[in-house]
Hints:
Helices cover 22% and strands 27% of the residues. With 311 residues, the protein is an alpha/beta fold. It folds into two domains: 2-114 and 238-309, FAD/NAD(P)-binding domain (3-Layer(bba) Sandwich); 130-234, FAD/NAD(P)-binding domain. It is elongated, with a radius of gyration of 21 Å.
Amino acid sequence: MLDLAIIGGGPAGLAAGLYATRGGIKNVVMFEKGMPGGQITSSSEMENYPGVPQVVDGITFMAPWTEQCTRFGLKIEMENAVRVEKVGSHFVVHFEGGKSVEAKAVIVATGSKPKRAGVKGEDEYFGRGVSTCATCDGFFYKGKEVAVLGGGDTALEEAQYLANICSKVYLIHRRDEFRAAPSTVERAKKCDKIEFVLNAVVDEILGDASGVTGVKVSLKDGSSRQINVPGIFTFVGLNVQNGVLKDDAGNSICELTPGGNVKVNHKMQTSLPGLFAAGDLREDSPKQVVCAASDGAIAALSVIDYLREHA
């Protein structure tokens, strides 16, 4: 039986593994269905992590985390956890394919993934001109015009990233104000390759057999506009990855908010003893890497206390 199972390999999960093993927990395994790193690996720039003054992309930023976090004995297994259940005083983590493991405590740090915009044509052309990752797909539009949909930090940051590759970026936002940090907005406004299309709603993503050919936009004044581009990048928020916390009947094994985030206290404890949540999964998460790492460390230290109390 594991002393601790960590589900999720982003900043929260990796930090939890580091603090748990360095804190003396011997049998700790982190389960991640792909390579560790998390959502931040899709970001084109990281500039606000304390102690890292240089601006780097998300993949470069996360590269040393795995090495550091495994130094004290954390094991990483590429398994897709699908369900956690509590059986008596311990937990059973079930994986895709039927495998399962038992653990005395569990930290869930499964994070979130980009939402779909719900625009006509989005599903049809996803992967054929519709993308949620500028770092992954921006190169395909080198020297071409593209559109970006969204008004948060990610949308504006990725628009700036694309402006370094593309000939022009149309930034489409349904309001004339942004959720992004003022400094991010100011930098985007100074970029002469970015055209702001504000108070606008994308009605449809247009395309043909070869992929996206443009987007139809409705403006606040009642007029419409067609923007001819071969690609659109959508950044309209995140979906909470809480499926692992649902039982066979679809009921949550711990208390969730109406939005699906996990309710935790300041120790990252959920309503189910021995189960902890960290990072973007938990309620009121600021969705910043430094905060996710902090959550993971707090959760791990709380697990140390929990295991000591239940030895």
